Amino acid sequence: MIDNFQHKGLRKRLVDGLRLRGIRDERVLEAIGKVPRHLFMESSFVRFAYKDQAFPIGAGQTISQPYTVAIQTQLLEVHPNDKVLEIGTGSGYQAAILLEMGADVYTIERQKELFIRTQKLLPKLGYQPHFFLGDGYKGLPTYGPFDKILVTAGAPFIPEDLKVQLKVGGLMVIPVGSYERQRMFVVRRVSETKFENSVHGDFIFVPLLPGIENQNKE
Ligand code: SAH
Question: 96 alpha carbon to ligand 1 midpoint, in Å?
């Protein structure tokens, strides 16, 4: 678990690049400058860790591109002590960014292999979210409501179950669209019954897949 001066230098360059691409939230940039992304990747990809690209993490999944992580986190308007639900734990990198910003993170993964691996890795790096193996479409009704919800896989629609787990005044960032392309939505809960959506550009995510129970029934 080495994080040396070379890694730190590469991270600084990554942060400079993200700033040039328009990321404005200094707290997001600071977190990206701190989290050792190379330690979240399989060793064969380590030398690519600080390029602004997505990479495979096993189980057919990817660690999101740093720019995408930065945009999603910026749109999430994270404040210290925010209770944040993340859908799609994956490598744990996004969860680490949120924790670095002082959030209390609840994260759900549907693939057991990734759930087990990341549950072991993150505490070793000093990051301690609450881990759940389950169906992100359903969220965590017994642990909600949440200040923020972040969906890190492409969803075919905005799940109603997640909307109702937002606090009034809270917001959800979720890429919505087809398998090939999604638009980044911010869904704000402005009252008990009222939600307002805004759209923030096109992205490509791995798909939000049906939950584990549904999968067994197919
Ligand atoms: N946040 C991750 C990105 C992982 S990619 C990171 O920082 O590395 C998206 C993840 O969502 C994958 O790990 C995938 O297995 C998971 N996923 C897909 N559908 C899901 C669902 N219904 N519930 C929970 N996780 C899901």
Answer: 15
